[in-house]
Amino acid sequence: MQPALRYDLLLVGASTSNLTLAHRLLDLAKASGQKLSIALLEKSPQFGAHIVSGAISDPHVIAKLFPDYLTNGFPIEAEVTNSHLSILGAKEKWDLPHGIVPIGLRKEGQCILTLSQVIRWMAERLQAKALEIPNVQLDVFLGFAAHSILFEGDRVVGVKASATGDDNEDNLYAEYTCFGDKGFLSRDLLDRFELRANPQLWSVGVKEVWQTDVDYQGVIWHTLGYPILDGTFSGGFVYGLANKRICVGLVISLDSKDPNLNPQQRLQHFKAHPWLQELLKNGKLVKYGAATIPEGGYYSLPTKFAVEGAMLLGDAIGVLDAASLSGVDKSMETGYVAAGLLHDAFAKQNFVGLAGAYQKAVMEGFVGQALHTSKDFRRAFLENDRLLGEYLPAVCRSADKGHPWLGSLSFGLSKPFQRVTESIHALSLILGKSGGGLPPASYTSCRENIVPDFAPAPVAVMAPAKPETIYSRSDAVFYAAPRYHEGNKHIEEFDPKVCQNCITTYERLGKTTPCIADCTAEVHRIDIGAGVRTHGMSLENCIQCRTCEIVCPQTNLRVNPTYEGSGPDFFGL
Amino acid sequence: MNIFVLIKQVPDQGSKAGVNADGTIDRAKAKRMLNPFDRFALEAALSTKRRYGGIVTAITMGPPPAVEILYEAIAHGVDGAILLSDRRLAASDTLATAYALSQTVRWAGAFDLVFCGLQTTDGDTAQVGPQLAERLKVPQITYCESFEIIEGHIQASRVIEGGTQTVKSPLPAVVTVANSAERLAYKTLRGAQRVQQLQRDEEARKQVIRTVTLDDIEAVPDRCGLKGSPTIVAATEKVGEIGGSCIIYQGRSIEGLVQDALVAIPRELVQA
User: Fold this and answer.
1) Residues of B with CB under 8 A from a CB of A
2) Cis ω before B11 (30° cut-off from 0)
3) pLDDT tens-place string over residues A349-372
4) Which of A119, A323, A544, B211 has fewest C-beta within 10 Å?
């Protein structure tokens, strides 16, 4: 029998956090001469093929990691030259005056990134860098997903990463393991050690990249309002990329009351807006993708960021700041901070105290500060559903009539005293100026927020969109290019009866189940056989956003990582 | 058992390959991949090793980038590899190819089994395997779907029209593997690890992946490449692009969907 596959450090996922960690660690090991063997696992067959993000990012951590990032080939689509926050009515778009845009959303000077390109660049750079450091051995396992976590008692000792059936060939062991994933495995760690004080609040983001006629490089819009005016926390974005491309996306919170969010179709409604129709004129769809986003922020942070033998980074912790829509820099920072601590721990061969030091460093650095400042951002909307359910629609309606300010005014004047008090309170939460007087927020999980018979207010019908700009969900899937190996079964359905009951419940209400409606890729369906309606899945369409698991009212679904390099190809998103 | 598996790098079917002025494929422009038929041969070789023990050597003939598929074979678990690479091999047809490969196999040493894919996706002749067997003067089993080794013999099930045929042959033998045989198991962690070790360590790489030329294998240059190839590509014609559009009907009852589809299909087609 050959010796077990063993490394000093195991990185699960070629994510921004893990790749930052690896780059920083290599730099430190190069200087110190510390001997290190590192394994990097990535489930997609090509780096960056399973990552989707906006993404606008403050490049401060990139600059720390690559001081020459402006000239060394680091892929940047553009520097933001014009940053808008806009209110969308059914017909009009109103760009808020710059002075009243929250500072976190003034993105001028920041970078527009295509994160899949960043990942590929960083991974390739990392491999080249490792070859030049004789005391470091880096092995990359592309197309290998971590299937499950290996424990010795309560200590993480590695992961199972293949399925030949022979443990000696399937298990990767490591002194220390870093999870930079978005929950496929890290959720198991959080559950096992009961590290969740509050459930995570997830959003789903759907995004398309278009080739356009006109060059919009450097111009960005974040939008509120149309097409989602039912009180659901959501927003749209349009970023002008390099080479006459734009990305158009919509982020919808899954803690909505609405059981039928239809994210991909809502994105089509968004694109039907006259303003976007103009942007997309003569355009061509290049790529489609979707991903879930951990938006709970401060109150959804795990109670511990590390356990014996392993730590969590980036999205595995949930360091995205929803108030400023920024996660990439924070995710990178967790990796940067972890690298320094891990380097010292390996040098001393002593990992005691690493967990505490890591958490302290993250929370006392800019990540912790940003999350703390905006800790009540989501709470403002949860506490007061009129903000999104009534106030925003009122502003949108008056934007359509050409006098957006009147919307706020009339809404405020209807119950002046209550409105003013409410607004001041909400604004203080949103802007992070509420002081320390409030008790910690308590979230309910996304699935518990669903109200089966929720009746959303109808959204005004748009002028008909050009058909060539609109894609059905089944057509959109082609632009995410999923490919699966024979015999793939990555979504588990625990009890078919539970699904049947769920189908019946929603059918009586004239709706379909959340898994079917909220799927971003035409996976879930109802099969009719012998008069019984059962839940079926077209797994070959799945683009692995994990929305179905999050919204399943009965916790009856689980999305596992796929094996053999299967899944979507998000490169270019 | 000493097992050889012959594999080839072909243009990726997913990418658009160019055509040279003389009608041959412009391989430099195309993305490259392991010939899909060879995946079944690779699995047959590796499963022979798993079941009966032995050493598997992958052999390919091609320009230097063909080493990529040898790495791929190593990731799947082959023990060693041979790359026959020589400019004088350019434009070889099946006659020249089978000759050069037979010389390579002879150079590589005694064998029990040589596995080949059924055919390649670029040439599609299915001639090299059988020609190779003739040149090596050993029995051949083509279209092999499954097999067992019993007392120094191979007993194989071949795909034939309307069914299967069971044949038995003494070893050594050449076997071409049908694409209905066992599919290639995914690459292994240890294989992926070994590939990276080899890429880092030139000395180790030379031991595991041997690169040979016509001189090494004592092949007559005149019998290789364009000179040794009686086949002439007279012309290549483009027969049109696959295209068209697809409409997916959904969101209604089956009856409704059929109604929709019937309305959309041109009348003359419905009547036909």
Assistant:
1) 183, 185-190, 192-193, 196, 200, 248, 250
2) no
3) 999 999 999 999 999 999 999 999
4) B211
